[in-house]
Fold this sequence. Notes:
four-stranded mixed β-sheet, alpha/beta
Amino acid sequence: HVVGDTIVDTYSYCGMIGGVTKTPTMSVLFQQKVDYTGGAAIVAKHLNAAGADAIFSTVLGNDALKDFVIDDLEKDGVKVQCIIDNTRPTTNKNVIVAEGHRLLKIDTLDNRSISDRNVLRLKKQIQASPADAVVFSDFRHGIFNRHTIPELTSAIPDGVFRAADSQVASRWGNILEFEDFDLITPNEREARFSLGDQDSVIRPLALELRRRSRCKTLILKLGERGIITYRSDSPIDYRAFFAIDTFVDNVVDAVGAGDALLAYSTLAMVATKNEVIASILGCMAAGVECEIDGNRPVKPETVKEKIHRVETQTQYSYEGH
């Protein structure tokens, strides 16, 4: 059961015309527009593509993009439990792309907190939907904040695996507000912000974040440097943490990599209860997402192909030595 902010990611592909002679204005020729269901919704699509029965709870505006989101999710087999709010738009982020370069992003959104009534409706959905895992996918566009998070967390039934991610690009978010979760997957910037620490090296930073959040497993995303996973807060146990390099061969579009990691690592933890397997599969899925244009669900077949390529490369390297 995924709960979180829906974002429609629009890619407006254009051709370069040049500059306007009278003013320093760039001019582009519109070619085509492609919409992708993103934000927390793509986490649900990743989970469903990987073999889970995904339920998705979100808040949408009463507009055309709402219909696009619902149709797209239902087409992929996700059970949608959307709350329609007439006072806010469906979040849309439109990026202008020309010759492979992102020139400008135009956002249509309302970052105000959702109403108490809608918080209550989400709580009832969380309580009433049977699930092996509940995933809070936070983009700080109204659903999650320091007032709503305790309310929504309290609705998760006992014994259900709890995962959370706070992916914040242009706003503030605090992963430490998700306390006592089974899995959290912040990136380095989010970790440093939540701890108010811009100086520590990665290992002490990750250790302190795990201690403060009281999570069972922390996967700290480090971009092109891969991840570091902490499964214990012991400073002397060499098995308390491990690092995994990135599995990206060629970065095409890194948007959505964290969503793929969250989905596959959560599902792996539920299925195997093994942090190593979950971290590797999460990294593999993130690597696949980085190598395709647009925010699309990662399928197990493509993850298996990447695993096979890595195995082949490793064997080749080993024999070479």
